[in-house]
Protein 1
Amino acid sequence: MLKIIPDRRGTKWGQMGDKRGFVVGLRLSMEFYELEAFKKLVAALDEARRLKSNLLIVSLPGMGASYYLKKYLEKGKPGKYISEAEQDLEESNILDLDFDTNGKALVQVDEYLKRAGAEQKFAVVINMPQILEASRFLESYLGRHAYKTYYFGLPGEEVVLQMAKYMNVGLSKVQKEKILSLTGGVGRWVKFLLGHLDLLDKPDEMMMSDELWRVVEPTVKVVSRCSHEVLEKLGLGSDMPELVKMFANKSEGSGEVDVVVGRDLVLSESGEPGVRALKIEADILNLMLGNNGVVEKEKVADLKWGEGTYDKFSDQAINKTMRRLDKKLKAHRIETISGYGFKLVRR
């Protein structure tokens, strides 16, 4: 059984202690199923299943929600884990379609829900929380048929301890506290730092590490697009992990599109509210955001004048609509793709 030992003369966590009896704290013997973060998720899933209702599980890339959900099923809970489109359904289903990298995730989830029978229910993982405030989500089948939301936030210290145990890494108290401060318990980050303990005392090298940036990047970019209210619910409001602060500037300089269409049709860019869009403009933007920033001219015509109307209107009329939308954007612009359509990019 592991014991926590004071950080004296290089003594490490995970040792059995020395003859002088410097043992001062907590025994680390909990198994994964005993983690509080896991217990809370289990309670939310079990309650949704008992009520026969759909559940949204809101998280961030790297938090470990997918791993926890797989462990939930491994424990013998009923249900099927689905990570791609067009799979067969069971009575209870966990849809984990990676909203962050899959531009079609919302459409695919809607398709699953629409073809489900009355007794088939879903837990849907959303690892791109900013979509919850977008009109395309609010008007989607999922947005109208999800009755409860669970925020899978920072697991905290217990994950650092558990992962150190699983990886057989001895930690000093100072090292544990540094990893917790840097990560907040984000599983992917904890795992990386446990394998690179030398970086804990080298902040400059940490900032320059491309390998660490690749681990941190997906989470940091999504965090930069979330409202303060959502971050609070995920445990990242007032106590932001140090790695988020360290890499925030690098994320802002990435050049990625960051536009959200609010439920009131107000456009938000990089978290800053802007002007109100027309309904047609919001529809065009949402279509672009769900297709890697690109839209065909024909699709613009379909949205503005109806299905199959492209041949009835000139490219000049379509361009006029897109120029009007372009003028409402401050941090982004709409580029013309010759012979095809339009692309949304940062200015």
Note: The mean pLDDT is 83.
Protein 2
Amino acid sequence: MSRVEKVVFLTLILISATLSGCLSSDNDSSGDDSDEIPPEEEFEGADYVECMIHEELERCWNVLVPSTVNLSNEVPMIIDLHGNTLTMENQRALSEFDDIAEENGVIAVWPQGFENSWNAGYCCSAAGELGLNDTGLILEIVDRVALNHSVDEDRIYLTGWSNGCALSQKLANEHSDRFAAIACMSYYLLDDPVSEYSPIPIMEIHGLVDQIILYSNDAIHLPNIEAQEHGAIQNLMMWADMNGCQGDTPNSNSPSVFYSIQSFTDCETGSEVSLVTLYAADHNPYEESYDPEGPLIFIGNGGTVDTNGIAWEFLSRFSKSDTEGTL
């Protein structure tokens, strides 16, 4: 759809919504959308929440269009998925991808999971227990944001923490045609590879002393022998196999004082697969601390590692226009 068609379509939506009175200024609207969406000429610098009914549930997401975005051009978009028990507001404050968006002229989106959770596979969430179609939800959010804004659909990226990282990898596995690359924190792919998967760049960032999703295996959440084969290194090797990477071990090793990056760089369609190991980080790999109500406090790395910067540096190197048709 051209930019002119997008403007016309959005204008019709706003006029129709205003006449019908279906929009509300707060987030508990029973309608399909939120009137936080600004008119097209005010999109630069916009920061709003939009909601819709998706499979009989109201679902919402926060969109940031930084003032640094030039809407006369198509720009990248990054989807940042919160962890289990967090909200979209918690994730935004913790990951600070709003700073990445401002600094780089990127549209950022923080979706809200059902009961603060995502259906990302076998592990530990209300959304998973109900079998919610969260991959379908994220795809619809992507479509709606791309309709309202000048999004470069060759540069749509995924990131997220924990449960949100698992959903990022599930989306990459099942819908590799829609995303240019993913770089997420502290969890693994919880499903088998699908036959439709086409290699895209994958990065997983993990704390060596993660006490929730263990670096060595996932025995806490998968109490059987297979759990011993499901840790950060095994996840790296699984994606390397899925991406048709050459070699039995990573061909690139970039050590530093507080972390290292092991990568397969010779992979199909120009893709790569990387594992970032944070030597002293627990389940929270970000710079900021997260202190929820309860016994656990995730202290963050205190600024020793620019985790979201590492993720963005990886993501921003890739575009689907550079890899389509490459074998």
Note: Residues 1-35 have pLDDT under 50 and may be disordered.
Protein 3
Amino acid sequence: MESRAYPFILSLLLLSSFMLSGCLSSEGSNISDSNIEPEEEFQGMDYFECMIFEELERCWNVFVPSTVNLTDDVPLIIDLHGNTVTMQNQRILSEFDEIAEENGVMAVWPQGHDNSWNAGYCCSTAGQMGLNDTGFILDMIGIIALNHSIDEDRIYLTGWSNGCALSQKLANEHSHHFAAVACMSYYLLEDQHPNYFPIPIMEIHGLLDQIILYSNDAIHLPNLEAQEHGAIQNLLMWSDMNDCQGNLPNSNIPSTFYSVQSFTDCENGSEVSLVTLYAADHNPYEESFGVFTGNGGTVDTNGIAWDFMSQFSKTT
């Protein structure tokens, strides 16, 4: 992977402690100045890293749970925040650090410029600036892989809202890098990329979403493209991109608080799923965030996302 980062990429392998001026400071332990092997140093670490990417400082938070077996290649979850939200907010809200701890995998929360991502036509500072956020995420993965033994066949994407749109954009444009996507409350905002290769996709959406409507994306974008794009349309778009069999989902699993509609017979062993939360607003997670009440603990949303993603590997 070709790196666009400047030569002074800040790496914890080169620092005896990590306190970076102009970057967010970690509340976790700092690496001591010792002769311990890097794999042992990183066991149980929770740290921040930054680089200069296309003239902007870009940062991310890496969590290596104590449950990780660093003698093996380790799966990686990338969790992308929503517009106006920080990486710390996303970590607290999604609780993917708990998923990582329970399952012995690494997790990373990148920070978007001005708390935003360029994921397509919608409504963010990064989008207005035309930032190369997919390039940033790929370079970030490359730097993490220099410090850790990452299982490159098991890199997963998740995220909320604007971060969900970027997750799907990354899957569309760089599908060979990722094993699966399961994200919350937004859609793919671009056409199929010529180099797209089918990978599993799940989108989770609340019926009561007041920001990105379940039926369409037109509440703040009154244009034809947005009006024709909702949760069902997004499901069908990915089904078409993944060459799934049938015009309708062949699996429909209802439960008390949500349902899962899926195309399970798709090219490359992939699947496409839509999880509909009956009583959730724009925040599909269990806990409240600001004016968004979430699902009140009725649905283990991040658990559903992880159960879906973890089934898949690039080699299976």
Note: The first strand starts at residue 46 and ends at 53.
Protein 4
Amino acid sequence: MINIALPKGRLGEKVYALLAQAGYPCPELLEDNRKLTFENPEAGVRYFWVKPSDVAVYVERGATDLGIAGKDILLEYRPDVYELLDLQMGRCRMCVAGPADFVDDHAQTLRVATKFPNIAATYYSERSREIELIHLNGSIELAPILGLSDVIVDIVETGKTLKENGLSVHAEIVPISARLIANKAAFKFKSSEIRALTARAAEAVAERSK
């Protein structure tokens, strides 16, 4: 059995549909219930609903063999896992945003508000830019509006929220999408099964992109 952590919510439902298309269905998962574990012995798969931000933890520690995590989570927390496949779902961008008329004065320390301090620190370190990190957990757009920060580093999907709050994108750091990840030990001991699933999932991704 291959144990797979699915992120709760719409993304997880889309990923499950992809994996079912690839030959790993579990009809029980679609039933109206509050269960968190589902299995299909015939397909050799067992699914678990997991909070999206916790998927990488379950995979890294071997509680599950595989999981689906956003590239943002992988870059921010750097779990010791294998990244097997870009599922091309949940696409968005990690960006630097701020007031439309903001001009970066390099003579001053740049104040950066973000939920992703490691991503922000790495981005600015690579540019030798001195910054003050302000770690927030929500409503990041308020930070520059209230003068708490000069800019923010956050995920941007459509840009609508930024626009409605008088902000705009100043730089794109990295594109973000859902990735299939594997526990390193599981990949060694269940190599043939995991490679087969990855190959079939890749075929399903390619088929959907046509």
Note: The longest strand covers residues 167-176.
